[in-house]
Protein: Major facilitator superfamily (MFS) profile domain-containing protein
Amino acid sequence: MTLKQATKNIVKIKEEEAEETDFETAIAIAGFGAFNILLLSAAALSIFATLFSATSMSFVIPTAECDLQLDLNQKGLLNAITYAGMITGTIPWGFAADTIGRKKVLIAGLLSNAVFVVCCSLSQNVTQLLTFKFFDGLAICGPYAVTLTYLSEFHGLKYRRRIVMIFGILTSIAVLILPIIAYAVLPYQLDLKTDYISIHSWNIFLLITAVVPLLGGVLHIFCPQSPKYLMSQGRNSEALKSIAIAYAINRRSTIESYPIKLLVDEAPERKIRMNPEYKQNLKTLSGKRKEAIIRFREKFDQLKPLFSKPYLPLALHVCFTIHQSIRLWMPQLFVTVEKYEQEHETMKDICDVLDVVKNKTEPEESSNCEEMYLTPESLRNNMIVAAVSVVAFFIAFLIVNETGLKCLTIIACLYLAAMGVSVNNLLTIEVQLFPTIIRAIVILMSMGFGRFGALLGNILFPYCVQINCLAPFLFTAIMVFESFA
Structure:
């Protein structure tokens, strides 16, 4: 017997003697430290990339109005098209996250998103921009929801609630960072032209936002796979290694020093796939065909629990309470308000401003178009609006453990500025209520319904403006009331 074989036998004996440990105990021993901070840093880039994709058009539209000859309805489409892509990708990304793993989805989604954002920055007309923004939304749909799942599966019960609140804080910070980037770029009148392409300040703005998903995708290459996902796939040895890595970095120790040696087998039916004979059979054509059929059935079976009690009522309740639309029109409204105040001595109410927006329903030729660059003042107003959400999330972060999720959700829903907190609480509830095998797809579906609300809201907002002043705000109020009910 060789030394290598003897070592393997000793390890095997120790594993057989070791007591099986459940996931919550194992992840709690890993603790909270440098690894979790690094994980949150990578997650922040994923969150920022998603919010940049969903919100960037709201800052581009006022600046690119003349360059792209935009009418009011086209502005609504540009705000909405990213959400159309996100909705399209909801089910495929959900299947992928629960089948091939969180890490692969994060890497593929972020890197492909970076490519499409670069394409958006090079767009020369509204058709090109709409096309690339659709694929931008399709690519980034998965990483945002999967980031929440990924983070929650690397933290024990002690930290999980606050981690989801940190997720919300990072989301609101992303909304604050975007106008800061816009503040640094968009007020400058840049006009570079060649025989094939024209570059304006809004093109540079979009190109800068592409750096975030690129960095996020690269960073996630070095992150371990979710241990909870690995356990659900019967890959306990890999799951143990992921948790041991977290333990080693947090404790500044070695992977071998992690005290847990054996995890509870959560998927005994999958052990057959680890058998060498089974792996050998996969090399044949018939074996591959059989494996493909089995995996398809498994993917379909993953959805069955979602359409049964108690998960279906819970999922439907959450799905219809996540939406946003008017926020994406704030930059346009602020720049219109500022321009109105420059041209008129007094402004009676917001209806005066909406009349200006309403009258610009037809696209103008570039030569006749009056440019409306986002000024530092209008961008500062957007920063103030975003900062309110950051404050709301910090308050929620501090009191979530004391008040409880239900009480905090009711309080948050009383204020429009705190709607993001309400959404985050609902996502926290989803993380806790739904099992690992359907968690990612449920979160993606709930966000998909919310994005449908954003898609509908941004398409209908211009039409509501053309009806009368009250219509767009009444429409928004009805949607908010429906969420509260």
About this structure: DSSP finds 22 helices and two strands in the chain. The first strand starts at residue 191 and ends at 193.
